[in-house]
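This section describes the prediction task in plain terms. A model, or a person checking by hand, is given the sequence of a single protein chain and must write out its three-dimensional structure as a string of tokens. No templates, partner chains or ligands are provided. The sample shown here is typical of the held-out split.
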Amino acid sequence: MNQEIMLLSSIIKKFSGNIFSEKAIAMSKYGVLTLKFSKDISKSIIKSMCKNMLGVDVIDVNTCNVKSKSKFFKGVKGKKASFKKAFVRISKEDISKITEVAS
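The expected answer:
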């Protein structure tokens, strides 16, 4: 039990949040959630996390790795962190459940 809590807390720390772009908002109408994770999370962990925490039925998970980018901030060169973007498709019954929570 204690190991499960530690595993869950480490996964939650690796979850960075939702991605709100025009494409992500348009895809949410069709039941696709766009989420941001650290690079070492697998699809099966993402699927179980969405199923347990959000209480939705996950149909499939697609992921892509977003590479880091070099940026300048006040004349100093730095890097934006790389991350994993996950596209989680949920069932049609759960689309209304998610949109009610968001609004």
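For orientation: The chain has four helices and six strands.
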